[in-house]
Amino acid sequence: MERDQTEELRALQDTLYFIGGKWRIPVINAICNGNKRFREIERSIPGITTRMLSKELKDMEMNKLVKRNVYPDTPVLIEYVPTEYCRTFGKIISEMINWGREHRRVIVEDSFKH
Q: Transmembrane ranges (predicted)?
Protein backbone atom coordinates (compact mmCIF):
# COMPACT_ATOMS: atom_id res chain seq x y z
CA MET A 1 0.00 0.00 0.00
CA GLU A 2 1.37 3.37 -1.01
CA ARG A 3 1.70 5.95 1.73
CA ASP A 4 0.14 9.36 1.27
CA GLN A 5 2.91 11.66 2.52
CA THR A 6 0.71 14.77 2.25
CA GLU A 7 -1.95 13.17 4.45
CA GLU A 8 0.70 11.88 6.89
CA LEU A 9 2.23 15.35 7.17
CA ARG A 10 -1.21 16.88 7.82
CA ALA A 11 -1.90 14.25 10.51
CA LEU A 12 1.49 14.92 12.14
CA GLN A 13 0.85 18.66 12.07
CA ASP A 14 -2.59 18.16 13.65
CA THR A 15 -1.02 16.06 16.40
CA LEU A 16 1.82 18.51 17.01
CA TYR A 17 -0.65 21.40 17.10
CA PHE A 18 -2.73 19.50 19.64
CA ILE A 19 0.19 18.59 21.93
CA GLY A 20 2.10 21.77 21.22
CA GLY A 21 2.97 23.98 24.08
CA LYS A 22 4.36 23.29 27.47
CA TRP A 23 1.17 22.50 29.40
CA ARG A 24 -1.28 20.43 27.35
CA ILE A 25 0.16 16.98 28.06
CA PRO A 26 0.80 17.64 31.78
CA VAL A 27 -2.83 18.81 32.12
CA ILE A 28 -4.15 15.71 30.35
CA ASN A 29 -1.90 13.53 32.48
CA ALA A 30 -3.07 15.22 35.70
CA ILE A 31 -6.74 14.77 34.82
CA CYS A 32 -6.28 11.17 33.71
CA ASN A 33 -4.49 10.51 37.01
CA GLY A 34 -7.62 11.47 38.92
CA ASN A 35 -7.22 15.19 39.60
CA LYS A 36 -10.70 16.57 38.88
CA ARG A 37 -10.95 19.95 40.56
CA PHE A 38 -9.20 23.04 39.26
CA ARG A 39 -6.98 23.49 42.33
CA GLU A 40 -6.05 19.77 42.38
CA ILE A 41 -4.98 19.97 38.75
CA GLU A 42 -3.11 23.22 39.39
CA ARG A 43 -1.24 21.81 42.42
CA SER A 44 -0.24 18.69 40.50
CA ILE A 45 1.54 20.71 37.80
CA PRO A 46 4.41 22.78 39.21
CA GLY A 47 4.86 26.12 37.48
CA ILE A 48 1.50 26.40 35.71
CA THR A 49 -0.34 29.64 36.31
CA THR A 50 -4.04 29.87 37.10
CA ARG A 51 -4.60 31.78 33.88
CA MET A 52 -2.76 29.21 31.75
CA LEU A 53 -4.60 26.28 33.34
CA SER A 54 -7.92 28.02 32.75
CA LYS A 55 -7.01 28.60 29.09
CA GLU A 56 -5.88 24.98 28.63
CA LEU A 57 -9.05 23.57 30.22
CA LYS A 58 -11.30 25.75 28.04
CA ASP A 59 -9.40 24.73 24.93
CA MET A 60 -9.49 21.05 25.92
CA GLU A 61 -13.23 21.25 26.56
CA MET A 62 -13.74 22.84 23.13
CA ASN A 63 -11.68 20.01 21.56
CA LYS A 64 -13.81 17.35 23.33
CA LEU A 65 -10.96 16.15 25.55
CA VAL A 66 -12.48 17.04 28.91
CA LYS A 67 -16.00 17.39 30.15
CA ARG A 68 -16.73 20.14 32.64
CA ASN A 69 -19.28 19.04 35.23
CA VAL A 70 -20.91 21.71 37.38
CA TYR A 71 -22.62 20.66 40.61
CA PRO A 72 -24.95 23.17 42.29
CA ASP A 73 -23.42 22.84 45.75
CA THR A 74 -22.50 25.80 47.91
CA PRO A 75 -19.98 26.81 46.82
CA VAL A 76 -20.46 25.54 43.27
CA LEU A 77 -18.37 22.44 42.61
CA ILE A 78 -16.74 22.11 39.19
CA GLU A 79 -14.97 18.95 38.07
CA TYR A 80 -13.08 18.18 34.89
CA VAL A 81 -13.13 14.60 33.66
CA PRO A 82 -11.40 13.11 30.63
CA THR A 83 -13.64 12.03 27.78
CA GLU A 84 -13.29 8.60 26.23
CA TYR A 85 -11.76 10.38 23.26
CA CYS A 86 -9.12 11.92 25.54
CA ARG A 87 -8.30 8.51 26.99
CA THR A 88 -7.34 7.29 23.51
CA PHE A 89 -4.39 9.68 23.79
CA GLY A 90 -3.16 7.83 26.89
CA LYS A 91 -1.16 5.30 24.89
CA ILE A 92 0.68 8.11 23.14
CA ILE A 93 1.48 9.84 26.44
CA SER A 94 2.68 6.54 27.89
CA GLU A 95 4.98 6.00 24.93
CA MET A 96 6.27 9.57 25.25
CA ILE A 97 7.04 8.94 28.94
CA ASN A 98 8.88 5.73 28.02
CA TRP A 99 10.82 7.47 25.28
CA GLY A 100 11.71 10.36 27.61
CA ARG A 101 13.00 7.95 30.27
CA GLU A 102 15.09 6.09 27.71
CA HIS A 103 16.38 9.32 26.21
CA ARG A 104 17.43 10.62 29.62
CA ARG A 105 19.18 7.30 30.33
CA VAL A 106 21.03 7.44 26.99
CA ILE A 107 22.10 11.05 27.53
CA VAL A 108 23.20 10.49 31.16
CA GLU A 109 25.13 7.32 30.24
CA ASP A 110 26.75 9.11 27.31
CA SER A 111 27.83 12.01 29.51
CA PHE A 112 29.56 9.59 31.92
CA LYS A 113 31.47 7.92 29.06
CA HIS A 114 33.18 11.17 28.06
A: none
